[in-house]
């Protein structure tokens, strides 16, 4: 009776769970991030991987973007391409003692609440400056007709349907066999231009034979459009087939950060549409990705490449409402710059999130960056933002 007049106290609503994509690229090409050098024993490779994942966990990151195919090779057991030189020191040689590095990364990332996205270079077959010998089952030996020499590079020709099929088959093989959270492509479609060392003139990509065979006598003035259509076909097919195979696996691309010079007004710089034959605006506006990570590797006050204006341009053409999570150059700029860029992303329309290049800057706490994030903007954990266009059915 004495309590009859007390006000009912229903439990308060829980505060909303923070949602923000917080990722770091883990580059394996040239052993940038992992493993620290080729040919380490498997136990040492595992120890280095755990140090990376533990650092991400303690700093409240929630995703790692692991490069698993740097140059038509594999950092996992594959029947399609050889073991990577960057893993074992000999292309085609398995790690010793034997283990599956990708499964190890996935299991340990998930144990820490971290997503694992697999990063593929779609067409590079040999990195510039590489000195190692290729294995017999590397595409340059097994199918040399698919490969072109371009400067110091070897490149799978995107104009060759079999080269495109190889890339799609490799990606789908990983999606089928592994519990990955995302598939990620970098910005290398046709190669960045190289120049003749004597004349300094830009060298055109050597695809005359495949152009003549596939295009069958078309006007040479349309070759640039044909090259772009080859990349369009690859991107569109990858998205469609990944969704058919495992609908919940995210597909993301990290293009060069400038759509084209003059977009937005006043922006100057490299023209990926004309040079890489990457029609990136069409890919985003058409919804052929789940997330978009343009490499905004310039400072906020850069006159020719202003960070905020470029971010807003990409957001503005995002007609299908995909995630726009820009890439930041954490290995170059001071912590204050990176923190302020994250603040700009948080204030922009749409989902919050960034990816940082590269993991080494996070692992080594470059100039106190990791500490600043863990004590500041990343002081509490966050979930990766939802992707409502993929539906709400839980994966198996």
Description:
There is one protein chain. The strands form two sheets. The protein has a nine-stranded parallel β-sheet. A three-stranded antiparallel β-sheet has the order 4-6-5, with no helix packed on it. The chain contains 13 helices and twelve strands. 33% of the residues lie in helices and 12% in strands. The protein is of the alpha/beta class. It has helices spanning 42-58, 85-88, 101-111, 139-142, 161-177, 208-215, 223-245, 272-275, 280-285, 307-316, 335-347, 359-363, 369-375, and strands spanning 21-26, 63-69, 115-120, 124-126, 147-150, 153-156, 182-185, 250-253, 291-292, 323-324, 327-328, 353-356.
How would you briefly describe this protein structure?
With 396 residues, the chain is an alpha/beta fold. It has 13 helices and twelve strands.
Largest sheet, in brief, is:
9 strands, parallel
Mean pLDDT: 95
Please give the radius of gyration in angstroms.
Answer: 22 Å
Low-confidence stretches: none
The total of helices stands at 13
Task: List the defining traits of the structure above.
single chain; 9-stranded parallel sheet; alpha/beta; 13 helices; 396 residues
Present the secondary structure layout.
Layout: E1 21-26, H1 42-58, E2 63-69, H2 85-88, H3 101-111, E3 115-120, E4 124-126, H4 139-142, E5 147-150, E6 153-156, H5 161-177, E7 182-185, H6 208-215, H7 223-245, E8 250-253, H8 272-275, H9 280-285, E9 291-292, H10 307-316, E10 323-324, E11 327-328, H11 335-347, E12 353-356, H12 359-363, H13 369-375
Parallel strand pairs: 1-2, 1-12, 2-3, 3-7, 7-8, 8-9, 9-10, 11-12
Antiparallel strand pairs: 4-6, 5-6
